[in-house]
Amino acid sequence: MRYVLTGIVWTFLAAGAATPSFPQKPQSAPAKAKDQFFTGTVIDIDETSMTVNRMVLGKNSSTKKFLLTSDTQFEGGRPQARAQVTVRYISTDDGDRAVHIILRRAPK
To answer: What is the pLDDT of residues 27-71, one digit of tens each?
Structure first.
């Protein structure tokens, strides 16, 4: 009887050691790159990139260069220099990649 009781105790101890007593975090997929927006005036554009300058009254201006790919969507037509645009972009290792460009106002 003593050996049976010892065997049962060892079985419970072994089973308790095999399963963790703390909750496990679920494994999640890698985070998707978050969309960001930038509005300003186009100062330079070619087939592979576009540079946009944003000026805010009372603050320093900021300039961003965006990569244009075949997946980049244009709304309102393809912008020219001095056009006002809003760019939806994602940051990648290669740089900021434009996903969607909205033409707000064509140059005069």
So the answer is: 665 666 688 999 999 999 999 999 999 998 888 899 999 999 999
Confidence (pTM): 0.67
The domain at 36-105 falls in which architecture?
Answer: Beta Barrel (2.40)
Alpha carbon 27 to its chain centroid, in Å, reads: 20
Output the six-digit token pair for 70: 């075949």
Domain ranges of the chain: 36-105
Tokens of 108: 């005069």
Strands (E), 4-94: 36-45, 49-54, 62-67, 73-75, 84-92
Number of neighbours of residue 9 by Cβ within 10 angstroms: 10
Rounded distance between C-alpha atoms, residue 83 and residue 20, angstroms: 60
